[in-house]
Write a structure and sequence with these properties.
- The chain is mainly α and 208 residues long.
- The chain has seven helices and no strands.
- The chain has one domain: Ferritin, CATH 1.20.1260.
- The longest helix is centred in the middle third of the chain and has 33 residues.
- The protein is globular and about 50 Å long.
Length: 208
């Protein structure tokens, strides 16, 4: 089952769709909080503030779409209101921790420089994934005649990716060699997350 087929199954079930939206919302919110946590006390530029604000807005927007599924629930980010809650919670934290170790051990970064470098690479990896995931989700929504749309998020995430590449050009110079590592790492975490979601769906009576 490819990603499009998986999302199509999710969208066909109000409960699964609501939990999918809630999981994406939680992950966007986690991203916003991590960006804010990486900020220097004084040296904060406009791009960083823009990214944190837009990730938080995406979290709110996705949460607000849950009611359109017709499912009553998902008011919080408690485990029973998420898809694959353990993997959903661990995804960004594991990515951040592994990239921070890489920057510290391989490149010798410390302190605020380490925080900023991790922000760049973690956000880059997330934007690459978003640039793949959200368009597929939007395609499935359209095919199912859903009232929900993530077109706005697709456009903004594409803009984020372009901005991250510009920032990494300035900071790293040779950022592409680091991108190979972080994309490979993110791919493994993404596959783990998707695998857990597949198992959740297989346990649903309508898909058993």
């Amino acid at each position: 089952m490819d990603l499009k087929e998986l999302i199509n199954q999710i969208v066909s079930s109000p409960e699964l769709h609501a939990k999918w939206l809630n999981s994406l919302s939680m992950m966007e919110n986690t991203g916003a909080r991590k960006i804010s946590a990486s900020e220097h006390q004084h040296l904060v530029d406009e791009i960083v503030l823009k990214h944190a604000a837009e990730e938080a807005r995406h979290a709110y927007y996705l949460k607000s779409q849950i009611k359109k599924t017709g499912y009553e629930g998902c008011k919080t980010y408690l485990s029973h209101e998420l898809l694959a809650p353990i993997q959903s919670f661990q995804y960004l934290h594991a990515l951040d921790a592994a990239i921070s170790r890489y920057l510290k051990n391989e490149l010798g970064f410390t302190g605020n420089e380490l925080k900023y470098a991790a922000y760049l690479l973690v956000t880059y990896a997330i934007e690459v994934r978003a640039d793949d995931l959200y368009p597929v989700y939007e395609e499935v929504l359209k095919a199912n005649g859903s009232k929900i749309s993530v077109r706005m998020i697709v456009v903004e995430e594409q803009g984020h990716l372009e901005e991250m590449i510009q920032q990494m050009d300035k900071f790293f110079g040779n950022w592409k060699q680091h991108a190979v590592f972080v994309e490979s790492l993110e791919q493994r975490l993404f596959e783990k997350w998707i695998s857990a979601i597949r198992k959740t769906i297989q346990n649903q009576p309508e898909f058993a």
